[in-house]
Amino acid sequence: QMFGVPVKPAPAPYNPNQDIEVQVPPDCDGFSSLRFSPTSELLCASNWNNSVYVWDVQPSGQAVPKAQNKDHQQPVLCTSWNQDGTQVYTAGCDKTARLWNLATNQSQQVAQHDAPIRHCYFVPSMNMLITGSWDKTLRFWDCRSPTPVHTQPLPERVYAMDVNYPMAVVGTADRNLIIYDLTKPQQPFKQLLSQLKWQTRCVTCFPDKSGYLVGSIEGRVAVQHVDDQVAASKNFTFKCHRDNTDIYAVNSMEFNPAYGTFATAGSDGCYHFWDKDSKQRLKAQARSMYSTTPATPAPISCSAYNRSGAIYAYAISYDWSRGYAEYNPNIMKNTILMHSMKDDELKAKPKAPK
Fold it and tell me: Are 162 and 179 spatial neighbours (Cβ–Cβ below 8 Å)?
């Protein structure tokens, strides 16, 4: 206390925005994906320690551990909820996808590739699971059968993917972008090279399906429209996740389900909120740092909004961009933080007059 007034402790360097911290198990490695349930406040996270975790986020903001699955033999890279939020599809480096029933805590294999599965999406309108792999294929699964309904060859390994039915966007190695109309998945709707000069890290479909965002390792986002005529006038790129001459990867982009504005998160330890229509940044947040000497950014590896868009969850995990020698597990903790959204981070601002 100072003069009888309690002194607030300084926020931890990895949580300068004083967001709510999820209590994660001590044996956690890096987090590879976050997904909220479509029907409740359950938050699912996949981890490089071969595990998948689910927490139940209370109205108070506290996250209560609900379930854990360790059935994968290698790191888990992605998850996708089923339609009613009772089961989670999980996939990763052991080249399999599994369906995990939360009520019984049992899982069964439902898909197989010839290389690690980087992304998986359950699509209720098709009642199918779509998996994208480093074996250069997309595979479509009716999970009652051990063989895929359809295997779609791709030009390269899947690095990034998003589905907003009937639209799917796949970003592969060599900067290929392939857009699918999932009512006719045998034939790409469109194939092009990314506008961005460097490796694609993430893609995200617009809520209205008229286009998509592309994020690269070079601190840059492209706003792309599918229709060529619209694209000619409305496509643009912008720089983000940079600090003077230091340039960081854009690791995650998520649209707010209520307002259609979006968040980006990067290896610089920052998350920002944007409005693509007015081409404005709504709010920049303070940078998460590791307590190293000198202090280094604590990368944000993945993020997710809950179904109402009121909570933005993000994971802090070392991303190896500084190499093996820089990694200090005693200082560089893996954790998940939850940010309670405020109006000025959600709502589009009126366009600035030209």
Answer: no
Please identify which residue in the block is written with the tokens 């998509």: 212
pLDDT average, residue stretch 93-119: 98
**Residue 181 identity (one-letter amino acid):** D
Token pair recorded at residue 208: 């209205």
For residue 121, give Cα distances in angstroms to 79, 179, 189, 301: 8, 15, 19, 19
Q: Give the pair of three-digit tokens for residue 86.
A: 């009772």
- How far apart (Å, rounded) are the C-alpha atoms in residues 282 and 348? 7
User: Cβ neighbours of residue 16 under 8 Å, at least 6 residues apart?
Assistant: 286, 287, 288, 289
Q: Which residues contact 229 (CB under 8 A, 6 or more apart)?
A: none
Amino acid present at 172: T
Omega before residue 297 within 30° of 0, cis: no
| CA atoms of 333 and 317, how far apart (whole Å) | 7
What strands, in cross-sheet order, belong to the sheet with 106-112?
Answer: 76-81, 87-92, 96-101, 106-112
Quote the pTM value: 0.95
Distance CA 289, CA 302 (A): 16
The predicted-structure confidence for 59-98, as pLDDT tens digits, reads as follows 999 999 999 999 999 999 999 999 999 999 999 999 999 9
| Structural tokens at position 229 | 């005529």
The per-residue DSSP string of 16-71 comes to TT-PEEE---TT---EEEEEE-SSSSEEEEEETTS-EEEEEE-TTSPEEEEEEE--
Cβ atoms of 338 and 313 closer than 8 Å: yes
> What pLDDT score was predicted for residue 322?
84
* Block residue for tokens 């975790």: 53
Distance CA 307, CA 313 (A): 12
Q: Which amino acid is at 236?
A: F
Residue 1 has pLDDT above 60, yes or no: no
- 167 three-state secondary structure: strand
Say how far apart CA 252 and CA 271 lie, in whole Å: 9
Mean pLDDT of 259-288: 96
